[in-house]
Design a protein that fits this description.
By secondary structure, the protein is α/β, with parallel strands linked by helices. It is built from 13 helices and ten strands. It is 49% helix and 16% strand.
Length: 344
């Protein structure tokens, strides 16, 4: 078997999302591959749909079911246990792929001898192969035989895991897996996985369609999901310490942690939640001070964030309550100005 595509599934029966995803995988032009679907204890008809595909396409589809919900990471781990392919790809059950996506990734691997190959993706709000908004996940500077400079770039921005294929031999050798029972497991796994591979190549085409819809995780900000961002951020640091990556890539790890654990969580929480808990704001501030107290001096941090973001972060570092009051007042002022003057 050349390739195993692992698809975790949870409550995807509505709106034809799961069928559209699976149809795009069934129609792949790659030759020797299997689709391993793992239902994560769905409460809808998802598993029934998967079994239907298994019956219709027994040479391609294998369906399994988790007894209890372990989130996407657990379903991916279970799928890897059943995978018989030389390569493993991961795929989200509401997205879809260009027909030649995996053929092109495998061909690039064969031509170059790479042990991990990726592509770009495009964002769409339609179940259609019409072009969407292209997102550059990885760059040519990150590719080739991997050395220190490429690993630094990959720690800072590893790119999505669902647009890559990984050599199973490397996964098995280093016992690579995903955090379980948390959202945002990729935040932890993506950079650490890349540091275990030796040769990364890129098919610079948007072959993966990231389908954004009302039920997408990205549209729902909850305290529980924000808590999981903190958890996976801590997991990332711990994993790097255990794997020997902490010291050689400390600046890059500090930047990645700052982005995922702190900055993204802070501002998405403030925007996405009507009722903000000062206690949680303080928990974020205390967490980053404990792990990386000098993060504001990080050169990548200084280059990435604008003056207003840095000012708001300084306020938060001094006082969570003051930051909250200032942020809400600033936001209220801007909304009032927009209402009065439009976009001026």
């Amino acid at each position: 078997m050349k390739l195993s595509i692992v698809v975790p599934v949870y409550n995807m029966a509505g709106g034809g999302k799961l069928e559209y995803c699976l149809n795009s995988l069934i129609r792949q032009t790659a030759g020797d591959y299997e689709i391993i679907c793992v239902d994560d204890a769905s409460e809808d008809e998802s598993y029934k749909i998967l079994k239907g595909y298994e019956e219709r396409y027994p040479e391609k589809v294998r369906a399994f079911r988790m007894e209890e919900n372990g989130r996407q990471g657990a379903a991916r781990n279970r799928g890897m246990q059943y995978a018989g392919g030389e390569w493993i790809g991961f795929f989200d059950s509401d997205d879809f792929a260009a027909p030649d996506m995996y053929e092109k990734l495998l061909r690039k691997a064969e031509e170059t001898g790479a042990d991990v190959v990726g592509c770009q993706y495009q964002i769409t709000d339609k179940q259609s192969m019409e072009p969407g908004r292209v997102v550059v996940n990885n760059t040519e500077e990150q590719t080739g035989i991997l050395g220190t400079e490429q690993y630094k770039l990959l720690m800072k921005k590893p790119g999505s895991m669902v647009i890559k294929i990984y050599k199973k031999e490397v996964i098995d050798r280093y016992h690579l897996s995903f955090p379980e029972k948390v959202f945002y497991e990729d935040n932890c796994a993506a950079p650490v996985w890349m540091l275990h591979f030796k040769h990364f190549e890129l098919v610079d085409e948007p072959l993966y369609y990231y389908y954004q819809h009302d039920a997408s995780t990205v549209h729902h900000i909850s305290l529980a999901k924000c808590e999981d961002r903190l958890t996976t951020g801590k997991m990332l640091v711990d994993w790097c310490k255990k794997s020997g990556f902490y010291v050689p890539y400390k600046w890059e790890l500090e930047y990645r942690f700052t982005e995922l654990y702190y900055v993204n969580t802070l501002f998405s929480y403030m925007v996405g939640k009507e009722r903000v808990k000062i206690r949680f704001l303080k928990k974020m501030a205390d967490g980053i001070k404990e792990e990386f107290p000098d993060f504001q001096e990080n050169p990548y941090y200084k280059q990435t964030y604008d003056a207003e973001q840095k000012r708001l972060i300084r306020y938060h570092m001094k006082s969570s309550l003051f930051f909250f009051l200032y942020y809400r007042a600033l936001n209220g002022f801007r909304k009032a100005r927009k209402k009065l003057f439009g976009r001026q």
